[in-house]
Specification:
The chain is built from two helices and four strands. With about 140 residues, it is an alpha+beta fold. The protein is elongated, with a radius of gyration of 23 Å.
């Protein structure tokens, strides 16, 4: 008989165990990275909305008016192109003020968070984390 080449059951089991150990470290790190990425994306988008609304206010002498505006309505009203990227946005304005929120809800986990920006100056507390636990953004005061 010729020498038959193949894998033994023990070799396959060792490979499966090694892959499981690697996945055990990689998956939590990936999930944490995704949360941080979504949060930073929300901060960038809310900052862009803030700047556009300040420009709008300088021209129209008021912030974009509306209660519960969708992202499409905000984009059209401020002539910007914020992309949702798995986030949910809402916008409400009143007399001389506004608040815009961006929420991320990861299905089946407790990693949800909501960020908020308002008419005050962009700083380390604006945008801020208004619900859930944000990896890097401070909680709203």
């Amino acid at each position: 008989m010729k020498n038959l080449k193949g894998f033994t059951l023990l070799e396959i089991i060792i490979v499966v165990i090694l892959l499981s150990i690697i996945a055990g470290f990689a998956i939590p790190s990936y999930n944490k990275s995704m949360r941080r990425t979504h949060e930073q994306d929300a901060v960038v988008q809310l900052t862009a909305l803030h700047v556009a609304n300040e420009l709008y206010e300088a021209q129209a002498d008021q912030y974009l008016q509306g209660a519960g505006l969708s992202l499409t309505q905000v984009n059209n009203g401020l002539h910007i192109s914020i992309m949702a990227n798995e986030m949910t946005y809402s916008y409400t304005s009143g007399a001389g003020s506004y608040a815009a929120t961006s929420s991320w809800n990861e299905t089946g986990t407790s990693h949800d968070f909501t960020l908020r920006v308002n008419q005050t100056t962009i700083s380390s507390s604006n945008p801020c984390c208004s619900a859930g636990t944000c990896p890097t953004v401070a909680n709203c005061s």
